[in-house]
Amino acid sequence: MKKYEHALALYPYFGHSTPTMGMFPPTGLEYIAASMKDLVGKVTLLDLRYERAYQDPKVLSEFISSQIDLLCISVGWGAQFWRICDYMSQLPPEVCTIVGGYKATQEVEYLFERCPNIDMIVRGEGEEIIKQIVTGVPYKDIRGLSYLDNGKIIHNEIHPLPDVRSIPFPDRSLRRHDYYWVQHGVRLSSLTFDTILTTRGCPFKCKFCTFSLNPLGQKRSYTERPLESVIEELKTVKADFVLLSDDNFFTNPRRSEQLCDMIIENKIRKTFAVQARIDMTKHPRILDKAEKAGFRVFLIGIESPHDRILKQLDKGITQQQIRDAFAILAQYDFFLHGYFIYGNIGETEEEMLYIPKFAKEIKLDSITFQKLR
Length: 373
Fold this sequence. Notes:
The protein is α/β, with parallel strands linked by helices. Helices cover 30% and strands 23% of the residues.
């Protein structure tokens, strides 16, 4: 007999902010749902961006009280955090409630104080931890878990990072809707969107980057999924536009080329977006195959147009190398998006204001820039 009969995986964000844009599914939560799916009686996945009725905590509470015996909530974003806490605190206290995600890992003590109905908080990656919880492993023996014991918060030791090769990919049959580009309740595109993870981690050591770290400071070592598994998952994807959420799709150029070949061979017709470094331009044959396979959007970490700052950040590239790389990329039918950082140590106002000018010079289609924290 299974310990839990009906688990609810809840994405609690809705309204008007970055995490509420309707483009992409809550992939992290979907990995959790996939990890426990065969270990509980049933899993229901609710994304409140698309579930207007359940945005009312009273309506959701009625559903939880009548059908759910395990509630798993993803709190990954800092945006709306206080509202999310207020929302969670109104959910039924008699149902076992687990919270996880990036922001939850950062705010363990506060969450227990603000939401007394929370029973456990998963710190860091939760795919292996949720399996132990639902199969009845004693809380004290589950690494990466914080929980209440007679009113006292217990923090178990950190759980090792899971290997991406051992994690089941999301079960898209659990979704109750497709994902569109939606803002302020208005659908802006007829295209449907999805994400897929083929690798986890990054071997580079840029000083500014916390992207490859989890909130506990654990660096995700670079690991690759078998390409056969990636193709198997891609065959389950119905969306038109797919973001490969790897930190850098071209970390292993030979593997990237093989995946492009397999996408073409299997006649998988999608528009793909990838994150990358300019190093990919050293491999024009791979770029040729990527274009043929449907790769159209490149999200490229440039960070700065200034050699002094690039060296300060340990980026490993120069302004001239950036210019040379984009001269090559301009020969393809790619949409090129650049990431920049401003407010670097010693950076002048004049240097910061040169960023958009430089973006025009190298013919970027769009940019985003973040302040160095």
